Fold each of these.
Amino acid sequence: MSDAVRPGVVRAAALAHKPAFWVILALLAAGGLRIAQITWRFLDAYPIATLTAVVLFALLAVPFWLFVSELDFLEREPASLRVLAFAWGGLVATTVSIPASTALDNLIAKLGSPALAADWGAALAGPTVEETVKTLGVVAIVLIARAQVNSVLDGVVYGALVGLGFQIVEDVVFAIGAVAQAGQGDQVQPVVTTLLVRGFLAGVWSHTLFGALAGAGIGYLVVNPDRTRRHRIGMAALALFGAWASHVLWNSPFFRDGLGNGALALLAVLLFKGLPPLLLTLYLVRRAHDAEAAYYVAKLATLRDPSLITPDELRVLGSGSRRAAARRHAGARAGRRARVAVRRLQRAQARLAVDLSRAPAQAHETEAASEVRAHRSRLESLGHPEAVEGVRSWRHTVSTAGTTAVAIAVIWVALSALGGG
């Protein structure tokens, strides 16, 4: 199977024939130049703080990137388009939003009042500009690679990565702004504080989440041709409004003074502002994942070839939790190599499902089918021939509880350090 048709591969030569590709490339280049200029000024004034901020927030981006990239396990988005989405958020959306948000904030002050702008400028100007420009990043991907956006979940992933790119670059800018505002020279303490506030506490339900909501709307618009155009546009607009409203709530002056000075008070504010969009996004992701899984599992079920996928593996492959349980079971039964082999088998089976959806008659002869058989042979040699979930282990329950406890402890320490108590 050639790279030209392999799922997850996008050739630059194919994109170069599209005018939108060159427009997007020019925008990325202009945004990159502007960010480079800003970074150079930061480095000149605060070299240690700037390098610290870049490193810390880059490290923070890694788990978010990995998590978002894994959302669409069955048909992973091409790495090139994931990088493009991240770059759009970090280079284009930020450089457009900074001057545009300032201009809109000034307009609010003129049409309303300086007091209105002081209270609500950040809540109205920022979300209006930023969510629009970030959503255009998902639209840009549709324009240059329409075939790679074939589910709502694709829109969620691309939108989340656009938001992640925006969030990381904006956080670095805020961190250096905090250093300058502190007026104590090239110090890293304001950078660490910004990391706690904007990274750990706001990172879960900030720009990544808002981008995912808007991206779901673009995905729905693209992949539901059976619906009327008015309906699809309406749903996309509703999703964008949801992202905008969530951002407005997050930036709003509600509870600006908090509910007190303790960690519990800060946590209550975070939950009030961030939990609704988080739950909504999780719901959309779950529905989109289940719909996609049902489609691809049904394709695999037509094979009736246990060397490619067994009935029990069909049940496992459609569920993220069951896939993880099958990998744990393999590791407990036959060691780390079996766990790795099961993961690779699942990846190959997912690619085979995509092959089936595109060329059913040739699926048995594709590269993915060969990979499935190779990983199956590897598992058989390890004495674990089938990627199935085992009995739930008490060790997994303890591990999950321990991980949750550690996460809560980290959040609690951060809240206590920032809010007292």
Amino acid sequence: MDAQLRAIADPTRRQILQLASEREYTAGEIAERFEMTRPGVSQHIQVLVGVGLLTLRREATRNYYRANAQGLMLLQKQLDTFWETGLADLKRLAEGENER
């Protein structure tokens, strides 16, 4: 989870994930959406693929990228544990205050 959190800490990577959640894109199509070099966008894509948040599908000489729903769901489940723990702590505090 640490690698995935580091990956999504970057705003460009979050934008790439948002874009790729709509449909498959080639690296060139993704790069057209950003004001940076293609190699720069490609590095962001490779980080997201490496941590399992983007999938890669090869077709002939083209690579297609799409948000990995399964990888995102696993990350969400892990993050939800923090939320659930926080809510449980809040509930205990609220119930404890009501008993007084």
Amino acid sequence: MAEIYHMVLASDWAKARAEYRPASLADEGFIHCTAGERNLQAVAERFYRDVPGSWLVLVIDPALIRAEVRWVVQPDGMAYPHIHGPLNTDAVMEVCPFPRGAAGHFLPFRELP
């Protein structure tokens, strides 16, 4: 299965140990994720562009997630993975800086093909 992504403030990720429990898990019952690097960048621009801070991208192997992962199809036809439980940190394959341009726009965290 292809990797999925979760963007997180560096300060929040620094608190994670064996499990990662963002506020959305308590507030909404799941952890928001995306599939596809271009989709991640679009989500970042749409929802987090005005949120200050240093951001990271967690590259997650869904086969290693212990909690249930449900895919939710949005009205625009895009499917988003939601992790319904804490994220075990050993499912995180890579932690990448999520750079921003001078105007605050999120930039690709990897070279896009």
